[in-house]
């Protein structure tokens, strides 16, 4: 199983957010920290704010910050919000064209593996992912 690049960046944005504690941050901070294209960072931040993982405040003293306490934001929830396709193979997709779907014995183990993957992520919150602000070249707060 592979997460898409926007999910990867979303998780890194959330690691940044939790690691800098209560400081507000901007899209430009994220671009600098990760070297990702600004348009991609904007897309990811918009998805995270729509999902109520981040809150955006406009204005001179605005910026981004966690929408709620870090221990309340599950890693599995972020992945589920960002991923658009958990159908690992053709037979797991609606309207499957595979001729053996009705008798296939692969579907159940793949579904179980997917469930186990997400269940493992559900045991972690974004608080568990915090690293030192110095890892981003920032002074500790």
UniProtKB/TrEMBL annotation:
InterPro entries found in the cross-reference section: Tscrpt_reg_Rrf2, WH-like_DNA-bd_sf, WH_DNA-bd_sf
UniProt keyword annotations, A-Z: DNA-binding
Lineage top rank: taxon: Bacteria
Stored Pfam families: Rrf2
Protein name: Rrf2 family transcriptional regulator
